[in-house]
Amino acid sequence: MGLILAVIFLLFGGSKLPQLAKALGQSKKAFKEGLSEGEAEEQEKRRSDLAGNPSATLSAVDDEALFEEARRRARLRVAEGDIPAERK
Length: 88
Hints:
With 88 residues, the protein is an all-alpha fold. The protein has helices at residues 2-12, 17-52, 63-80. The protein contains 3 helices and no strands. The longest helix is centred in the middle third of the chain and has 36 residues, at 17-52. It is elongated.
């Protein structure tokens, strides 16, 4: 690991390393934002597909959508105080 850092230091020099680290961090942040944005669009599409189809059955709903709805309802219950403090 140290050898890799030494080679990077020799290639880019001490003055370029902070800029390189900053660019790498910004790229990582943008990538994560893109992933979460894509997931949000996918969930919205699933919801709109289910809302547009009133004859949708439970088998048409995927497990992840069911788990997400259960998590959302649990957060609402905790926020409203319906769950006793010892169960939180």
